[in-house]
């Protein structure tokens, strides 16, 4: 390893260090940090999208570029927190990464399997064609990058910083609505689908962050759900009709309320019902742990400010 590469590796490791450090500059107000970090992650999202476009449906490139996009986003986020907030990025404590990602991924897969089982019970899901291992690998890499980038943006930045201004309830609403609105740009998007995403995913992933105060669980849930949806069962993800075919080539038929129609199973009433259960449980856990924060009220002492 060259000296330059060794320095780069040390710099990246330093960004994730949990060692407290002496602040060297003032911490910007939450509103300013929100604007700056959202702008920064719009750029990161664009770079990640470019990587996905370059990878296309090549399984090897998709894995490599997906991992690169995830690492880029994590490092940029951790560095931004250290610079703008003058603290270690405790929400990305790597000692909690393994357990959080495992639990989240298994949970996300399980929740989608339950959703699709209900859809299939009403005759809404079937498969055609053979099995595509390459397609599953392609989706695996793609969804790894998507889950990391979107969770850092919507839970790490939007939820966390809006919570400083409007409390946990306000953060759940704002981050959920914005997360749903993001999916309106997809080719098969519908307003109902965006609302369903806001409720089932936006609230659940926000609750996962509130309960654990780390980003690993929501990243795992997001990844597990998306990979099961497209990478395993081969159905439309959030109205995005341009996704590569996964392990199976799934087909949906029947009432839109059951199957989600062109938007995919995430617009199914079953998806909302299934995801509501962990959302409630996670919010109860957050409350029990004292992690639901009220809206901050400006201090009023009644004493006139000194001139």
Would you kindly provide a written description of the structure presented here, covering whatever features stand out?
This protein is mostly helical and 307 residues long. It is built from nine helices and two strands. A two-stranded antiparallel ribbon has the order 1-2. Mean pLDDT is 92; it is low at 299-307.
List keywords for this structure.
single chain, 307 residues, mainly alpha, two-stranded antiparallel ribbon, 2 strands, globular, disordered C terminus
| Beta strand count | 2
Residue stretches low in confidence (pLDDT < 50, at least 5 long) are 299-307
| Rg | 20 Å
Sheet with the most strands, sense and barrel status: 2 strands, antiparallel
Strand percentage lies at under 5%
**Straight-line distance between termini:** 60 Å
SSE class: mainly alpha
Rounded mean pLDDT score: 92
Oligomeric form of this entry? single chain
Instruction: Name the overall outline.
Output: globular
Written as H for each helix and E for each strand, in order along the chain, the element string is HHHHEHHHEHH
In short:
By secondary structure, this protein is mainly α. It contains nine helices and two strands; from the N terminus they run H-H-H-H-E-H-H-H-E-H-H. The chain is 66% helix and 2% strand.
């Amino acid at each position: 390893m060259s000296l330059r590469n060794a320095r780069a590796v040390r710099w990246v490791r330093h960004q994730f260090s949990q060692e407290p450090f002496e602040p060297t500059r003032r911490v910007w107000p939450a509103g300013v940090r929100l604007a700056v970090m959202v702008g920064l992650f719009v750029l990161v999202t664009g770079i990640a999208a470019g990587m996905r476009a370059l990878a296309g449906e090549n399984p090897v490139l998709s894995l490599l570029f997906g991992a690169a996009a995830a690492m880029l986003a994590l490092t940029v986020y951790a560095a931004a927190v250290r610079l703008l907030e003058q603290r270690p990025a405790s929400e990305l404590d790597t000692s909690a990464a393994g357990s959080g990602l495992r639990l989240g991924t298994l949970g996300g897969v399980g929740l989608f399997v339950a959703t699709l089982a209900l859809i299939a019970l009403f005759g809404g899901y079937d498969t055609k064609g053979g099995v595509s291992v390459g397609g599953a690998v392609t989706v695996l890499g793609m969804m790894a990058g998507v889950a990391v980038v979107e969770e850092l943006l919507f839970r790490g930045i939007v939820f966390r910083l809006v919570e400083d201004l409007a409390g946990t309830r306000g953060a759940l609403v704002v981050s959920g609505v914005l997360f749903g609105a993001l999916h309106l740009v997809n080719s098969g998007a519908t307003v109902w689908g965006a609302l369903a995403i806001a409720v089932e995913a936006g609230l659940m992933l926000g609750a996962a962050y509130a309960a654990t105060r780390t980003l690993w669980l929501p990243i795992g849930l997001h990844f597990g759900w998306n990979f099961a949806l497209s990478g395993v069962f081969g159905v439309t993800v959030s109205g995005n009709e341009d996704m590569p075919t996964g392990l199976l080539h799934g087909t949906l038929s029947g009432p839109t309320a059951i199957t989600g129609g062109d938007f995919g199973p995430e617009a199914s009433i079953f998806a909302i019902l299934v995801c509501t259960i962990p959302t409630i449980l996670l919010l109860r856990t957050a409350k029990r742990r004292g992690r639901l924060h009220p809206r901050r009220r400006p201090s009023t002492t009644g004493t006139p400010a000194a001139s």
